[in-house]
Amino acid sequence: MADTTTASEPDAGPIAPEPVLSDAGPEPGVPTVLQTLRRLDSGPRGLTETEAEERQVRFGANVLPDHRGASWARVLLRSLRDPFTAVLLCLGLVSAAVASWGTACVILLLVAVSCVLRASGEYRADRSMAALRDLVAATATVLRRTDEAAPPDAREIPVDELVPGDVIRLGPGDLVPADLRLLRTQGLTVQQAVLTGESTPVAKDAADAVADGDDDFDRPQLCFQGSSVASGSATAVIVTTGARTRFAAVHGRADDRREAGAFDRTVHGISWILIRFMLLTPPLVLMANAALRDRGLETLPFAVAVAVGLTPEMLPVIVTSCLARGASLLARTHGVIVKRLPALHDLGAVDVLCLDKTGTLTQDRPVLHRALGPDGRDDPEVLRWAAVNAWWTLQLADLPTPDALDEAVLDAVDEDDPMAYDGLAALPFDPLRRLATAVVRTPGRLGTHTLVAKGAAEAVLERCALAQADRERLLALAAELADDGLRVLAVAVADAPARTRDYTPADERGLSFRGFVTFKDALAPTAADALKVLADRGVTVKILTGDHPGTATRVCRDLGIAAPSISVLTADRVDRLDDTELAAVAARTTVFARCAPEHKARIAAALRAGGHTVGYLGDGVNDLPALRTADVGIAPREAVAVARESADVVLAEKDLTAIGHSIAAGRYAGGNITTYLRITLSSNLGNVIAMLAAGLLLPFLPMLPAQVLAQNLCFDAAQLAFAYGRPHPSVLHRPTVLRPRDLLRFITGFGILNACADLATFGVLALALHGPDGLDDAAVFHSGWFTENLITQALVMTLLRSGRHAAEHRKPGPIGWAAATLTAVGLLLPVSPLGSLLGLTPLPTLYYLLLAAVLVLYTAGLMAVRARDERRLTDHR
Fold first, then answer.
1. Could you tell me which residues come within 8 angstroms of residue 463 by beta carbon, excluding any fewer than 6 positions away?
2. Using CA atoms, how far apart are residues 233 and 541, in angstroms rounded to an integer?
């Protein structure tokens, strides 16, 4: 039996059904049945085949606008828009212009690998999404005639062949294939949650009555594409099809350009910091060498090499590899499709998750809460009478299945209880009466029939023989229960003398009130545990729903979510706040009730404006604006097609557990990316500072361009391990947000420390090994600094990994092995035949002893600075 205590959710605005076959403008409100049929040039018997064919040509197929995925070439070109990829391309072109072919080839190869990896991952995700797309409905029952004189013939046809003016029939479970005006109904209720977010079916009726409100979804005479029949049956005429439906209008907005997400904002911020450094470095090197060493354009290759040395050229490859591996793992193990690779990083950065309660925190069905007598106390007799009504109404009214509330009643009683009575007749539920009545005979009570009525509290109580004060008290009790988030049905009975004539609604008078049955939403079995996991990971859950605020707070209370009355905000209060006020209020609000689509999008935007990274889980057309406003939009596989296409991440099921797994994968990937950036940029900055200082102090270049390239290749190859490393579990406990300002502070501190180690190495080389004249030995200097650079970079890789005490893992892992290999290359390459080709030479034993002392001091400095940095982060959190 449909619940009428929860108000429907409003939507973006009124769009009246457009008269598609007439130039006359629509009349105010909903046209009558006769007006609608005249405008459509149709009738209750439907169209003829000839008329349908003509209209098919005129209006086209009844399909949504085609949503084509991007081609492989387009996805590949799109991957070039990454700002850092553009910087690498420019450096590659500059290297080629100064005949530094090795550098140019390496950079261009890295760019190509990164673009192919990213394009492959996103193209696979697009193809996986294409396999999920389906039609809104497959077939529909339509009335068609062979000619004007022929009787109508009901037949099943594909929905894409439906045209305006077609008369169709709907039954339980049918999907509404177009926008309709109802002609006849029998107990019709429609589930339109995908359009409005309302969790309960809405009663519909064909009567030419004036509807309250301006919202089309509140008008009982209209049904819209994308909704489905929950119960009852109807005959309706199609008003609009294809691209002109309300559903298609929202679908067309799915391709609107969305704002940059957290990952894109982070990469752009870091990229511009590095771009400024790289643009300044070559001119500074050229000017300094020209002024102090009287060197000209011959230092240009070295200046370019210095700029390349500052550039984390593996960034696109590392980022894409980390995200692609995480996305592939999610797809294999949890059925989660990451359509846009940067969205995986955004998931890891999410600290606020917005969702509707229905289907996520609760199941799409109610369960019985309590059965209360007139005094408000538990009374099992009320439940027994409610079950009698539900069972015999189902049996005698020839309904295919019980509705959700009747099913909850029957699930709560022994199946033999209602069958202890003999069913005689039933008056099924209809939207006007708002109740259903079963007539039964109690065994042993010959000559007496019992009417058992069950329905909306107002409808039942007005038919009961009660004093006005008692009626008002019971209505107040029902309202109190509804405000507490419960759905309420009233139960009443009446004895009548046995008779043979039919019972009618006029017999529903003088009833004896028995009590109320209340229902609450069935909690999702995994919701409570998933919410604890999300809380442990620093994710705050906010509920954005079209339901009554009491219903939402009831769910929060049942799941242990703190939602006091001060943390509940309704849509009308949201409308009274400006954007700045809403950003402040949204941060401390848990439940947003009575939300329309524009409210959900505005709340998501306000949370983002407040500095949060926002994830939004939605599955209906009403969720589209918010899906595109959030940093990362999430939709389940069973969501409407347009919601899936607009989402960044698609879940196998609408389950918070899957979101928990996705956030974990995003944080592991984000932890590896953050580790790579912190280590690489701090090391590179230290090397650049040392190179600039050495270039001014030495009579020769501190390192040959070929040696710089070889060093970068070794370090880049070792850095690939970051894509396969597993960060410390502590990264799961907080969002992986990489703020450019914090990163700049980190790399500056560790970069200066690294430069100090390099300058100490210069002192060792200049004084300890060869005395003051040792600076003239360029090959020894190059070899000593080359070895020291690779070893210090290996130390940085080991000691600056993400997470407290990450270096104390018992197993070295990919990063540990890569650091060991880098150290071995630094020690062995100068003494190998390949080293001589690069201009390197073996070093005396004393150098290695002194270098060990420098490295010990450098390690101690790294540990001290890291400890201070971790304390600062802990105090900040």
1. 435, 453, 492, 508, 509, 510, 511
2. 39
Residue 366 DSSP class: E
> How many whole angstroms separate alpha carbon 181 and alpha carbon 193?
19
Tell me the mean pLDDT per 10 residues along the chain, length 877: 38 37 44 88 91 91 65 67 69 70 71 70 56 54 89 88 93 86 87 69 78 65 85 90 78 52 70 71 69 63 68 74 85 87 88 86 87 93 94 80 84 84 89 89 86 95 94 94 90 92 91 95 88 91 86 85 76 90 91 87 92 89 84 86 81 87 90 83 80 72 74 80 78 78 80 83 66 58 84 85 49 82 90 84 80 85 78 58
Rounded Cα–Cα distance for residues 418 and 443 (Å): 12
Cα distances (angstroms) measured from residue 679 to each of 437, 676, 716, 734, 787: 74, 5, 12, 20, 18
Give the pLDDT confidence score for residue 12 in this predicted structure. 34
Q: What residue ranges of the chain are covered by domains with CATH 2.70.150.10?
A: 33-66+136-254
- This prediction has a pTM of 0.71
pLDDT for the residue 13: 35
Please enumerate in sequence order all residues whose Cβ is within 8 A of that of 729, keeping only pairs 6 or more positions apart, or say none.
803
Residue with tokens 């000017």: 287
Q: Is 356 a catalytic residue?
A: yes
pLDDT at 126: 58
Specify the CATH architecture of the domain 364-523. Answer: 3-Layer(aba) Sandwich (3.40)
600 burial level (CB within 10 Å; 0-12, 13-18, 19+): buried
Rounded-to-integer distance, Cα 64 and Cα 55, Å: 17
| Domain span(s) for CATH 3.40.1110.10 in the chain | 364-523
Q: Which of the 8 DSSP states describes residue 544?
A: E
DSSP 213: S
Give me the CATH code for the 33-66+136-254 domain, please.
Answer: 2.70.150.10
* CA atoms 27, 33, 38, 40: torsion sign: positive
The secondary structure of 640-685, three-state, reads CHHHHHHCCEEECCCCHHHHHHHHHHHHHHHHHHHHHHHHHHHHHH
The side-by-side arrangement of strands in the sheet containing 362-372 is 362-372, 512-523, 487-497, 448-455, 435-441, 422-427
Active-site residue, selected from the candidate residues 356, 406, 521, 648? 356
What distance in Å separates the CA atoms of residue 637 and residue 359, rounded to the nearest whole number? Answer: 13
N-to-C CA span, the chain: 51
Residues in the chain, total: 877
**Residue 260: Cβ within 10 Å count:** 13
Q: What is the number of helices (H) and of strands (E) in the chain?
A: 29, 22
As a whole number of angstroms, the distance between CA 40 and CA 316 comes to 57
- Any idea which residue has 């893992």 for tokens? 809
3-state secondary structure 605-623: HHHHHCCCCEEEECCCHHH
